[in-house]
């Protein structure tokens, strides 16, 4: 998801401003919410370095081994929680979150008191410092990754009948996930010096979320009242987590009272403007009290939330009704006798150019808009492509000897470090991973070696852009870059293979790009945290390797749990059963977008309605123009940047027939705005804890609901539908 939360251009910002920079994402893309910097002791802001490209000078050095068993265990457990949460959020609305701040706060809150307690009992316990805290966060980030592909490409493979069942395919899902994850990790490892030292100042690569994570870790370890402040922050996060988890679990038994407020259904039940009220209800306009998306709105800010709602209004409040009224799209009556009409079907009857549903018609403008914006962003980033190519070529020509001093674009000498990642640490492993990936894709997915190598090459090249976007704007455009891969692979395989084979290649190639860029961005962000805190990059690299293995096992397992409990995830129809009156709880908008692309580039005939195609071209031109204005006229538009619509998020709303998520995010953004204005100190200290706890809590509650559904104890069997249509 290019996913823009707050455009920063290529200019560096001060570290004191990083607490306001957040990440969001679109369908199946990555959302990294930056930390709320801590201000536990007076004058801390004054102590912050004014140059964001030098390490912190007041961080205590490591006094012992920091790659400890306790750090890895706590980090991987935190990552597992976030991984499960991300699968839930991604299937709900294509939204995922990073475990960077969650892992750093939990790591400190658990291991710092534990170390002190064991020492008070007379046991020798190694001091828990900021570098070990960084290892916890690194392991958490790695273990919390790789879920993105399971809310996009993998379900699309099942919906198109290209795989059998998640339970039967579990081993090969683990294999392809691990292969893609380690490819991204190993291919990005040698780029640390390039992105962290050589071009960071030139391109303004401050990695806002990562820098804010480092500030948070530093602040927790420096604060005079550290124990009290840490306990308060941990308590806030725990309360938020428990509340959100319990609400998600309990609400399924009274969904219309505790979770979804169908206000227009309530109005219709009184007899007042019943037809109009039910017509509005049919377009999905209701309020959902989802802590996860309210928390997400607290982090992403008003621009993203308002863009999301604006896109929903355009798609499901203006364009959709216009299409139906003019006979360009069609709905079907629900089985209930209350006047509801379903406009969101993607069944064979309504996924047709001659008889489309509004959802199918609007899917194409949304996807085409994303692709246009992605290619335009690609064009606007010509400088990073040129600098990266030049830097890599120079590195290839020059044999780096021990003690060699790197030269940044600005001319500063960066001396070599004994902890730097050497050639032997990544190249042999990368060769092995490439060979193994070719073997896996050939044996398990019938892909040729040439096709796999093309997909991996695209994954590496596009991961460079993803890292640049992450460092400069705090966004990771995973979905957009994956769509670029899909388009390229679609062109190269046109007419050269069966449709089924071409579709499988297309989705798997995009999946490899998604996974590889995901891990590459996570690794580079962790290197940025380690650079500021003085953590050994080798030990961070090792923690990432371990965390990636955990993620490769956890992400497919969580997907198996959800797919078993909610089979509709694997279906192209948005209703369950013959009656058609039960909408799938997980609309999975990212999956629909991936499936739409693969159908468009592999079918011999056009699957797109002509009117939809014409509108798609128009909105693509508009999106490209707006991206160009944003990138090329930054100095002239500084004042209106906060009010500039985010085209990626607006386009995402076209693919997501669930207006309640944008509404919930807007509620969260308003809460955050008022809180920050009225109580800025409290907001800085506790806002992220509240939001992170709410997001993780609802995600874990969703996992519990999936388990309850699997054993027949869910709200569908024991709950009430009072208040629902």
Automatic annotation (TrEMBL):
Any one Gene Ontology cellular component term annotated for this protein: fungal-type vacuole membrane
Bias-annotated ranges (Basic and acidic residues): 16-25
Cited Pfam families: OPT (PF03169)
Keyword vocabulary terms for this entry: Membrane, Transmembrane, Transmembrane helix, Transport
MF (Gene Ontology): oligopeptide transmembrane transporter activity
Residue numbers spanned by region Disordered: 1-53
Positions with biased composition (Polar residues): 26-37
Cellular compartment(s): Membrane
Family (UniProt): Belongs to the oligopeptide OPT transporter family.
NCBIfam families named among the record's database cross-references: OPT_sfam
Identification of the protein by name: OPT oligopeptide transporter protein-domain-containing protein
Species the sequence originates in: Aspergillus caelatus
Origin organism lineage: Eukaryota, Fungi, Dikarya, Ascomycota, Pezizomycotina
